[in-house]
Specification:
The chain is an alpha+beta fold and 165 residues long. It is built from five helices and seven strands.
Length: 165
């Protein structure tokens, strides 16, 4: 598959299109997220949203949080059902990792235990399980916390200081 164009979300229309995709695909259906719930997540100005485009169509998007204890937290990876298994998730992950690793040596994400295909994708990309949050979002299911690292924070900061000097 040819690389998609990935860019920052730019408009309310972009947010509404992303929310529509999210509300009509898994795992958000199982999580019981409405369009309005999804729109609130996508439109949260504290997060960075990057959209993968094919011409005029959104193939998927990714939301990252660059603030807080888990700087570099990938909050959402959402691929339109018609685009799944075509490399969109991998392209979005690579884009997010490039962004995250420019400021932090760690990327984090959670994946629902009922979403084994996503878990496999993240493992293929080097993410490792670091914890499990039982009954966190849905009774009877866990959120699996995963991490991909390019090194300890202390080493990363020292390397960045040398580069900036």
């Amino acid at each position: 598959m040819d690389p998609l164009s990935i860019r920052a979300m730019q408009s309310k229309d972009d947010a509404q299109q992303c929310a529509a995709i999210m509300a009509t695909t898994e795992p958000w259906i199982t999580l019981g997220r409405s369009f309005d719930d999804c729109l609130a997540v996508v439109a949260d100005e504290r997060r960075e949203v990057y959209i993968a485009w094919d011409a005029d169509h959104i193939a998927g998007f990714i939301i990252i949080n660059m603030h807080g204890a888990f700087t570099g937290y990938i909050q959402t990876v959402c691929v339109d059902a018609e685009w799944r298994s075509r490399g969109v998730g991998s392209q979005l992950l690579q884009y997010a990792e490039d962004r995250i690793f420019s400021e932090s040596p760690n990327a984090f994400l959670c994946v629902s235990s009922f979403n084994p295909r996503a878990l496999q994708l993240y493992e293929r990309h080097g993410y490792r399980v670091v914890g499990e949050l039982e009954d966190y979002l849905v009774t009877g299911h866990s959120e699996i916390l995963m991490r991909k690292s390019i090194g300890p924070i202390d080493d990363y900061r020292k390397r960045k200081q040398r580069q900036d000097a």
